[in-house]
Amino acid sequence: MRTASRPVRLAVALATLFALMVGGGVVRAQGGGNSVWLVPIEGEITPATAQFVKARIARANREQPLALLFYLDTPGGRITAMQSIVDAVLNDAQVPTLAVAQNAFSAGALIAMSAEKLAMLPGSSIGAALPIIATPTGAKPVAEKYNSAMRGSFRSVAEARGRNALVAEGMVDPSVSIPGIATDKELVTLTAQEAVANNIANIQATSVRDALQQWGYGGAAITRMGPNLSERLAGVLTTPIAAAALLVIGVGGLLIEIFTPGFGIFGGLGLVALVLLATGAFVATPAGPLDIILIVAGVLLLAAEVLVIPGFGVAGVLGIAAIVFAIVRIFQGSAATVLGYSALFGGVLVAALLWVLPHSRIAAAFRLTARITNPPSPSSVGPPGSADRAYLAGRQGIAMSDLRPAGVARFDTERVDVVSEGDYIPVGSRLTVLHVEGMRVTVRAVEPDSGDVQEA
Length: 456
Fold this sequence. Notes:
Blueprint: H1 2-23, E1 35-42, H2 47-63, E2 67-74, H3 79-92, E3 97-105, H4 107-114, E4 117-127, E5 132-135, E6 138-141, H5 144-160, H6 165-170, E7 189-191, H7 192-197, E8 203-204, H8 208-214, E9 221-224, H9 229-237, H10 240-258, H11 265-284, H12 289-307, H13 314-331, H14 335-356, E10 396-399, E11 406-411, E12 414-420, E13 430-437, E14 440-445
Parallel strand pairs: 1-2, 1-9, 2-3, 3-4, 4-8, 12-14
Antiparallel strand pairs: 4-7, 5-6, 10-11, 10-13, 11-12, 13-14
């Protein structure tokens, strides 16, 4: 009863954690229509940033504050996250959208320009939006195909908000020359004064309150709508390194638990890791129930491959494919990075298990603890206790374990370590000894019509 209740209690605790974290993403009203909501976009722009901003826009549509004010101090980030935020600001927001930029580089520049009004703070800058891709030798510009798409996005957003499209395009393309600002070999990066003079920003302001005063919101209260605890935690859990570590611990822990009786530490760690990954994905990425189902199905297929189906075939391939497909759906542009770290961490875990398990208590569940030293039967052809098993040549016996290709067989009352010719032989199969080299006994499965097994 104790072993049955422990996983139940663990499952209840994890379900409670999941509900608290997901439910924690909803913050109670803090002013509604009597205030301007300040939404900070700080640090690297990630899928978690996109989910956070979209959640605040959706809530603003319901509660109708006076305006949404995006405060930007960011070096940029993921293109897919940027596109998701810009689309929400342009097409989903049903209240006035304002932006105040301290530093808005790369993806942050396009988000700032997507607001209806943009103010620049003292010492601020905007621009430098050349899209790059990380490679083993360092960051490099993306191919022209993707650069062209990014130029089009900057030009389109600038035109939609009545800003200078040529200057916006120059933030992405160094070949665009803007007299007095950038040559045809430089990206456009504007100071606060230059941004206003070149019709990228609307005004300069000494502070957020000053910007609101100039826009006619001087008497409004400012309600900061920053990320709450669950959103911050989800953002950490869904970084590529953390997500890969949780995935490997989750899948690896459950697969290790399959080989051990009861429900122990490895199964608990595996469940905790997968629940944390699922919770973070729900809060900080576009993940849905289908993605979590795919990961669970992948784990079950891998377990079936290990325990039920011999060799490595369709179930194993489908299990891996299901997990990879779920990761691609959840992390999108970051999926390759997550999968790369997962492969690295998985290799480290396998190496650690190969080193630790043969010397640990957990290995006792599937390791032969005592070396077989039974003397041969009286009918054996060799002296009792002989180290040379040549007397087994031609003998027939029964497989006492699966041969993959090594395993254990019984000949009369003697248990012997044997190896097949490379074929998988299931437990209970009849065997015949082909040849013996010292202690190495090579066997082959006996067809049903090949004669009776020589044992009682």
